[in-house]
Amino acid sequence: MKLKILSTVRTNNFSDSEMMNKIGSLWSQNEEIVKNAFQTNQPVFAVYYNYDSDYRGNYNVSLCIISQEDSNFDSSIYNWKKYSVDSTSETGIIDTWKQIWDDEDGNVLNRLYAFDFEQYNADGSISIGISKSL
């Protein structure tokens, strides 16, 4: 799967009080593109990359769509661990990221920190893909 960047922000999970607003702005800036993607049953992705260190450090997050041309990310060159998100829960995404961090801290998951993504599907389902070592 190849992904093309629409917009990007830099943030931090723990020290940026504007993190949620910054990420929300990615969606509002690209509202029409997101709407069109969902209408054609195409997923939209929030891609996390350019990590300073681990999940505690600064990183970039970009809103992306599938594109064979002008792509910025290619998922075929990494191994992935997929996490399903409870999209019926208001805290489903946050809860899933906390599980990912717990798995990493507990040595259940060996993250590469190449890039990771949240995949938002037209049917409302959400999953998170984490690049990992073999």
List the helices and strands and how they pair.
Layout: E1 2-12, H1 19-29, H2 31-39, E2 44-49, E3 58-66, E4 73-74, E5 79-85, H3 92-105, E6 111-120, E7 126-132
The strand count comes to 7
Terminal Cα separation, in Å?
Answer: 19 Å
**Rg over C-alpha atoms, rounded to the nearest angstrom:** 14 Å
Portion of residues in beta strands equals 35-45%
Q: How many strands, which pairing sense, and closed or not: the largest β-sheet?
A: 7 strands, antiparallel
Structural description of this entry:
The protein has one domain: Regulatory factor, effector binding domain (Multidrug-efflux Transporter 1 Regulator Bmrr, Chain A, Alpha-Beta Barrel). It has three helices and seven strands, in the order βααββββαββ. The chain has helices at 19-29, 31-39, 92-105, and strands at 2-12, 44-49, 58-66, 73-74, 79-85, 111-120, 126-132. A hairpin with a 5-residue loop joins β6 (111-120) and β7 (126-132). The longest helix has 14 residues, at 92-105. The relative contact order is 0.22. The model has no long low-confidence stretch (mean pLDDT 96).
